[in-house]
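Aim 2, interim progress: modelling of the adenosine-5'-triphosphate-bound target.
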Amino acid sequence: MPTPTASTPTQQPRLDVALTVATRDVEVRFTVGSGETLALVGPNGAGKTTTLQALAGWLMPDSGYAHVDQTVLFHCPVPHQPPTVWLPAAQRNIGYLSQDPGLFPHLTARENIAYGMDRAGITRRRARLEAAEAWLQRVGLAGYGNRRPAQLSGGQAQRVAIARVLASGPRVVLLDEPLAAMDRDAAPALRELLAEVLRDQTVVLVTHHQSDVEALADEVHHLDPGVSPWE
Ligand SMILES: Nc1ncnc2c1ncn2[C@@H]1O[C@H](COP(=O)(O)OP(=O)(O)OP(=O)(O)O)[C@@H](O)[C@H]1O
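Predicted structure of the complex, ligand included:
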C-alpha cells in the first residue's frame, strides 16, 4: 500500500497577500509563514470568503497581489485596471475546502479522492486508486472506498473531501468554515484530523469558532471592516 505522500512536500511555501475588492468593501493584508496555519477571523461580511475566493482564482480583486513564494497568483498594481499577472485557478495548485464537501455524487469515495491526482504527478489510474485507498485509511475511512456520497454521513463525506483536497498535493490549502456543517458529535474528531493532516501545510483558515483557532491556527489575523490594513 503506498503512503499518501502527495500532500507533504518537504518545502512548504510562504504566502503573501494584500488586496482590495472595492465592490465588497474588502481590504486585507497578511502573510502566512511556511507550513503555518493562519486563521482569518472577523464579523459577518468582513470579507473572509471574498479573500479566499481571490486566492483561489475565482474572483479578481481591484488591486493588490498574492505570492506563493516566487509564484505570483495575481498582481493588480493599478486599482480598477486589468491585472498585470493573473494565474488561472487551475494553475494555482491551491486546495479549497468549504463546509460543503461538494463530492461528485456519481463517483465512489475512492474515485472522488483519485480525481485530480494528476496534478500530484500520479497519472496512472491504478496508482491513483491505490493512493486514494491510502488516503481513505489516513482519514479513518478504510473500507468505505466503494461508497457513493449518498451512502456516507456528513462527517464521512467531509473526510473524503479533506482527502480529495490533500491528495492533489496543493501548495496552499484554503479552509472556509470546514466544520460549520458538522454536528457536535462529528466536529471534534474532524478538527483533530485536520490538525494532523495539515500539520506541515501552509493554510488559511476562515472560522467563527474559537475551538478551531485553538486547535489549528499558528497565527490569527482579525479582519475588521472598519479598519484599513494599509495604515
Ligand atoms: N457574490 C457577491 N456579490 C456581491 N457582494 C457580495 C457577494 N458575496 C459577498 N458580497 C459582499 O461582500 C462583503 C464581504 O462578504 P464575504 O462573504 O467575503 O464576508 P465574510 O467575512 O466571509 O462573511 P461571513 O462570515 O458571513 O461568511 C459583504 O458585504 C457581502 O455582502
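The pocket of adenosine-5'-triphosphate is lined by residues 24-26, 42, 44-50 (CB under 6 Å). The chain has a mean pLDDT of 91.
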